[in-house]
Amino acid sequence: MIRFEQVSIAYDGAERPTVHDVDLSIDEGELCLVIGHTGSGKSTLLGAINGLVPHFTGGTLTGRVTVAGRDTAHHPPRDLADLVGVVGQDPSAGFVTDTVEEELAYGMEQLALDPGVMRTRVEETLDLLGLADLRHRGLHELSGGQQQRVAIGAALTAHPRVLVLDEPTSALDPTGADDVLATITKLVHDLGVTVVLAEHRLERVLPYADRVIHLPGDGTARHGDPATLLTGATVAPPIVHLGRLAGWAPLPLSVRDARRHASALRERLPSVPPAAHRTNAATAKRVLRATGVVVRHGPVVAVRGADLELRAGEVTALMGRNGSGKSSLLWALQGAGRRDGGTVDVDGTDPGKVGAVRARTLVGLVPQTATDLLYHDTVRGELDQADRDGASPGTARALLDTIAPGIADDTHPRDLSAGQQLALVLAVQLAVTPRVVLLDEPTRGLDYQAKAALTGTLDRLAAAGHAIVVATHDVEFATGAADRVVVMADGDIVTDGPAPAVLTASPAFAPQVAKILAPLPYLTVGQVEAGLA
Amino acid sequence: MAAATARRIAVTVLDRLRADRLPRGLHPVAWWLWALALATAASRTSNPLLLVLIFAVLGFVVSARRTDAPWARAFRYYLGMALIVIVIRVVFRSVFASGITPEDHILFRLPHLPTPDWYAGIQIGGPVSLEATLSATIDGLRLACLLCCIGAANSLANPKRALRVLPGALYELGVAVTVALSVAPQLVESVRRVARARRLRAGKAKGVRALRAIALPVLHDALDRSLRLAAAMDSRGYGRTGTATRASRRVTGVLMLTGMAGLCVGVYGLLDPSVPRPVGLAGFTAGVVLSAAGLAVGGRRVSRSRYQPDPWRWPEWVVAGCGVLTAVVLSAGTGYDPAELNPGLYPLQWPSLPILPAAAILAAAFAAFASPPPLTAPRPMVPAVAGAGS
C-alpha cells in the first residue's frame, strides 16, 4: 500500500538528512506504529506519506514514495486527499469550518462528491465514531477527545485507504486517549484502513500494532514485528522493560500477555518490595497550606472548597480528567489565577494578596503552554531577563545547566524541543527561589527520555527542599516522579494519599507493572529489579 | 374518478407544500432580497409614518424568524446604531444651523460662534428650529431604516450560508472569511492566556515591554496555527485544480477585467447627467454580462460540490416576492398621490398615511408567516470557560 524506496529527506540548512535510505513497505490493513525520540524524524516520515514533505514543508526528498501506486513526487497532498487522510496533533488547528457536520463534509466537498453521497457518508461517520449527538455543535465547544474524533471522522468521510495520525492522543486525558485509540483499532478491524500512527505513550497502542517502525535518531529506520523490534529499542514502555528484565520471549506487549508470563516472576518476588518506588525526600516541614479554596468561572465551579497541605521535599502528582479543576487549583494557589474563597498560606503570606513580584518568590508556576512565558529572541535573553527580575546575574544560567545542560545561548527558544523549553521555563521560574513549584501538565509532548530527565530534575528540586506539585495525566510518569497522589474530580479533591496506595487502588490509575504483578504492590521496574537481586 | 384523482393530486401537492414549510433555514438569498427590497422602499419615502411602519415590520419578522445563533442576536446592535445615527443627525443639524426661514418655529437658541468671512457658508450655533430638527430626525430615521434592513438580513440569514451562495469562482473568498471568523475567537483566547501567564513572570501588564511580551507569543501561536491549518487544508484536498487549462484561465482573466472596466464606465455614465443615459446603461449592462461570464468560466474550473445546499422552494419565492412588491409599490408611485411619500414640513402638519404604500409595507410582514420556522439547535452545554484550563 505504502512503499518507501531508498528515501532520504533533508531540510535546507540541516547538517545531515533527517532520514536517509529508508526502505519499507506497509501492507493494506496494517496498523503501523512509528516510534522514536523527539526529533528523530517521525513527523517527517509521516508527512512524506501524503506528500506534505516536501511539497508543503520544503526540503529535498530523494528516492521514491508511492501510495497505492501514486508517486508523491507528482502528486501534491491535495491530489492524494482521496487516498490518504491525515490527522494532526492538535485537532483544533486543522478545523476549517465551525460545526461538526460541516467539518465532516469539508473534505468531500473538495473532492466534488455528489450531495446525496455526502449526506450518506456523514451519517455513517457520525454513527461510526459516536458523534451523532454532537452533529450541530460548534467545534470549539467540544472536549479534546471529541475534537480528535471529529478530526478522524473528517478524514474518514473521503474514504481514504490510508490514515496517517501524528500523535493523536498527546493532548488528551486518559479517557479521551482511550476513546481515540479504540476508534482507530475499530477502523483497522472493521474497515481495513491502513493506519500509520506516531505515538509517545506506547503503553496504550503497542498491543494493537501489527508492525513497528523504529527511528533510533541517526536517520535510519528499522521496521518489523513489534515484539522483536522492541527487544533492542531505546524507546519502550515499562512492560517491555519488565519483559527484558524477566527474560520473557517473545516479549509480551499487552498486560494480558504479560500476566500469563508473570506467575513465575510473582513467586520469585518477595511479597513486600524491598525498596520504595522512589527515594522519598519528604520532610514534615509544611510550606504551603490551602484551606477551602473555591474557584468559579461564571456559572461553573471549577474548584469547590479544596484543602491542601504541601511539605518541603515532597513531590505530589495532581491527577484527574480534563476539566476536573487541576489547572484552576494550581493557578489559585499561585495567586495569579482566580480565587473566590478560601485561604492560601505560604510562610505566613498569602500569594494571592501580595503583588506578582512577591508571589512568584513564594510559589512558581509553569503553565500548560510553557512557551507563553517566553518572548525573547534567544535563550540568553530569557535568562538575562530572569536574572533582572530578582536574581543575581548568572543564576538562571546555572539553573538551566543543571536541569538541561548544553543549551546554547544564541538558540531561539522556539527552536528548542518541548523538553528543553520546559527546562528553560523552569529555570526562569526557579531563579527567584520559590519554595513551592507547581507544574501544569509538563509531560505533554515529552518522550520517554525527556520524561526521565524531568523526573530527575524534580528529584533534585525535592532533595533541595522544594515542595512540588505536578498536574499530569500520565500514570507511568506519576509513578516514577511522585511521592503522593491527589486525585480531583468535578472540582473536589477525591483522594489524597501516598502514591503506592493511590496508584494501586484502582485499575484506571495503576501503572503497567502494578497491573501485571497485582496483587503484589510493585510499582516500578526498579523495584522488581531490587526484589530479584 | 377524475374528481378523486384531482383530489389525490391536490392532497399530494398540499403535502409537498406543507413539507416545504417544515422547520429549516430559509435560503439566505431570499432574506437578502426581502431586506434589500425593503431598504429600497425606505429610501423612496420620507414619510415618518411609513418609516416607522417599516421598522415595525422588520422588528416583527426578525423576532419571529431568527434563530438563537450568535449572529442572530445582532439585530439589537443595529437598532442601537440606528438610534445613534438619528441622534448624530439631529445634533449636527442643530449645531451647524442652516436654512432657517423666517416662518420657522424657533425652539431655542444655541450660543452663536462667529466664523471668519471666508468660512461664511456654515454657521455654528444660533437658533434651532422645530422644522430643522424634524427634518433631521426624519432624514436620520430613513438612514436608520436602511441600516436596520441590512441588520435584519444579517440576523435572519446565516452569514456563512450566505457566503456559500457565492459563485464557484469566488469560493476562496468565502473560505477566507470563514477561517477568519473561526480564528478570531482563538486569537482572543490566546491573548488572554498569554496575558495571564505574564503575571507568573511578574511582568508589567501595560507599556511597550508588555506589548512585546504578549504580542510575540500570541503571534508565534497564530503563525504556527495558520501553517498547520494550511497543511491540513492541503491534505484535505483544498485547491485541487479541476480541468483548468492555461487558455481558460486567460479567458477568465480577460472577461473579468473588461467586465469590471465596463461596470466602472457604466456606473460613471449613469451617475453623470452629462453622459447620455443609453450610453451609461449599455456600458453597465455590458459590464454585468462580461463579469457574469467571467465568473461562470472561472467557476467551471472549480470542481467542488456543496454539502446540503439550501433549496429554493415556494417560501423563498413568497418571501422575496412580498419584499419586492413593497419596493415596486413605493417606487412606481401609481395608485396614490406620490407627494404623500414625501410630505413637506411647510406648513407644519401631521403627515397623512397613504393607504396603498402602507398596505404594501404590511404585506412584507407576510414573510414571517411564509417562511418556515428556523431550526432550533439543541441547546449547547455550558460553554467552555475561557481561561479555565483543565
From TrEMBL, chain A:
CDD domains: ABC_cobalt_CbiO_domain1. Residues 2-242, 288-515 form the ABC transporter domain. It is a peripheral membrane protein. Pfam families: ABC_tran. It is found in: Cell membrane. GO terms for cellular component: ATP-binding cassette (ABC) transporter complex. SMART domains: AAA. The keyword RNA-binding does not apply. Keywords: ATP-binding, Cell membrane, Membrane, Nucleotide-binding, Repeat, Translocase, Transport. SUPFAM superfamilies: P-loop containing nucleoside triphosphate hydrolases (SSF52540). GO terms for molecular function: ATP binding; ATP hydrolysis activity; ATPase-coupled transmembrane transporter activity. Belongs to the ABC transporter superfamily. Probably part of an ABC transporter complex. Responsible for energy coupling to the transport system. PANTHER family: ENERGY-COUPLING FACTOR TRANSPORTER ATP-BINDING PROTEIN ECFA2, HEAVY METAL TRANSPORTER. This is Cobalt ABC transporter ATP-binding protein. It comes from Dactylosporangium siamense.
